[in-house]
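Hi W., the tryptophanyl-5'AMP complex you wanted:
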Amino acid sequence: MASDRPRVLSGIQPTSGSFHLGNYLGAVRQWVALQESHDAFYMVVDLHALTIHPDPKELRARTRLAVAQLLAAGLDPERCTLFVQSHVPEHTQLAWIMNCLTGFGEAARMTQFKDKSAKQGADRTSVGLFAYPILQVADILLYQANEVPVGEDQRQHIELTRDLAERFNGRYGDTFTVPAPYILKETAKIYDLQEPSIKMSKSASAPKGLVNLLDEPKATAKKVKSAVTDTDTVVRYDLVDKPGVSNLLTIYSTLTGAGIGELEQRYEGKGYGALKTDLAEIVVDFVTPFRERTQQYLDDPETLDSILAKGAEKARAVAAETLSQAYDKVGLLPAKH
Ligand code: TYM
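Structure:
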């Protein structure tokens, strides 16, 4: 058993027909690496996805699709615990306790909530969206996670998790591990290929800026080749003056293992065209087998379901133990069987 290893936990939403390059480089890639050294729990957060009112059939299909993509990316159910959030009812149970510990103003200050609710308008903003980060707090604390591998956009939610863990521990006695964010500087934020000042996101305004891993590789190559750069010609990493080129260098470097300095040298005097053409090929070489592996997992739903059943069982064993401690600490009367 891996129980003497530090524990990591993370989650991804099944809200799109494909993961994008930001999800992969910012988070999932680290999940794959950490399963070798950590006691790792990874989940598809279908309850969080409900906050955007998905079509029920589509949500179910995308949950399976998310699991298939995680396996295709390299998660190994022998090395990590892979499960679906709603299969472990303790998440919503602990979330209630955390709701009662969170200030209204504190939740209202979450920037992701502010952005999303501003975009959607008050009428379409649910209490679920407001409480979204608090369910995430419960996700993390249930597993006594030491670290949470995510992209930069999740940092504030991890801060909230730390605050609530400390508040609970202070009020009721030591119960929860206070987790740290695990955010790699280089890939903390992958940018939109057309608008390199904003993060790559499934809700991108221009589809050309978003690299979905399951898109046709040819279409993806085209997107990379038409990435926005600048009017200069020098291939140099400089996030302030050359955000577009810097983003391409980050992607190139992470997918190949070549250092940024090495790449700057390699493309000296060659201009952006050569860089983009080569990167397009690198991305295509990455997504082509990824798509095939994802399809293979989708074609075998029995194996997928059995992986998820085992994952839920392992996750529940940990979650139930933590929840019963929390219930006891806050003074809920135990049910007698
Ligand atoms: P989600 O589904 O939006 O994104 C999954 C992961 O991808 C990262 N990411 C990025 N990283 C770098 N650059 C980008 N452009 C980029 N876009 C997305 C995200 O930071 C994330 O790590 N609230 C979470 C899901 C969640 C969770 C949890 C995470 C629910 N419970 C518990 C950790 C622990 C979310 O919406 O991720």
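Strands lie at 7-12, 39-44, 80-84, 147-149, 180-182.

W.
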